[in-house]
Amino acid sequence: FLSRLRSFAGRPACSADGVLLKVYGNAASDADIKSIVEVDGHGVGLYRTEYIYLTRAHLPAEGEQFWEYKKALLAMKGRPVVFRTLDIGGDKIPSYLSMPEEKNPALGHRAIRYSLSRVDIFRSQIKAILRASAYGDVSILLPLISAIDEVRSAKAVIDDVKEELRREGTAFNPRTKVGVVVETPSAAVISDLIACECDFLSIGSNDLIQYTMAVDRLAAALSYLYSPFSPSVLRLVQTTIKNGAAAGKPVSLCGEMAGDPLLSPILFGMGLRSFSVNPSEMLRTQWILSLLKTEEMRACADEVLNLATAGEIHRYCREHFSRFV
Ligand code: PEP
Ligand code: MG
After folding, report:
1. Is the beta carbon of 45 within 6 A of some atom in ligand 1?
2. Known binder of ligand: residue 183?
3. 206 marked among binding-site residues
């Protein structure tokens, strides 16, 4: 079976009835990039840039970041890399950055909110990513967006940095795409509006579950509520996929859900065509998708979206897809 899985390495992903798909890897370390290269993956669908910040004792200078991003791009040999801008705050705070104590860190000063409050740090990261765009296929992804103003403010900074690079005569790709992580219920509900303001959407199901269910994703005692099978979560995912498609913007899903063998068939049935999963799940996801037929999975997704509880949905998925586990 393992050698059968290996045979998917480097091949385009495709459903049983010939729908072309993408299976990307999520990276939060150099080792992850290496694993993605090893399975000849289609690219890095989520590069968690905070690891560059969290593994150092100092704020990484622009040149230091540029070097890391360029390294990843060269390793991917022209395949796309989606750089998510700094997603710190909440549970992830580098020792050298002071942050105010917060009663509700998950609802506080994190991700894009932090970047927009420290434009000096944000600009240096954007500059590093844009400079790296001269060496590969780069996209920029904005985490924890909950309002359109945040997208506009971030894009204004990006445009400003582009202007600076032009003035300096530094090489970069002026058509670098900018996407939004849909990981708050707010973003999912207005994903039609967000899709008009950016180039692509990436659903962050890990946080989307946390914020939709109003349950701390790290609280073990409440984990019974933290379920990717929740009807409300799946409906928000469906809304986002539909809104992206209606606006003609690609939609990907980069949370754990994308690599869950019980849920990837349902996501495919909902119309998802791009999956970003942990490196160790890339080949299995490609294999699962290769066995699915569009109409059958659409019918399954319709049935699932009409079930009332996470338990019922989980049972349905186990009955239909346990051969993939
Ligand atoms: C997510 O929230 O689903 C996600 C992909 O990002 P992270 O797990 O890094 O918050
Ligand atoms: Mg997230």
Report:
1. no
2. yes
3. yes
- Active-site option among 198, 254, 300, 317: 254
CA distance 278 to 177: 23
Q: What is the ipTM for the molecules in this complex? A: 0.99
Ligand positioned closest to the Cα atom of 205: 1
Residuewise pLDDT in 10s, the chain (325 residues): 888 999 999 999 999 999 999 999 999 999 999 999 999 999 999 999 999 999 999 999 999 999 999 999 999 999 999 999 999 987 788 989 988 788 899 999 999 999 999 999 999 999 999 999 999 999 999 999 999 999 999 999 999 999 999 999 999 999 999 999 999 999 999 999 999 999 999 999 999 999 999 999 989 999 999 999 999 999 999 999 999 999 999 999 999 999 999 999 999 999 999 999 999 999 999 999 999 999 999 999 999 999 999 999 999 999 999 999 9
> Among this protein's residues, is 196 annotated catalytic?
no
Distance CA 252, CA 160 (A): 27
The model scores a pTM over 0.90: yes
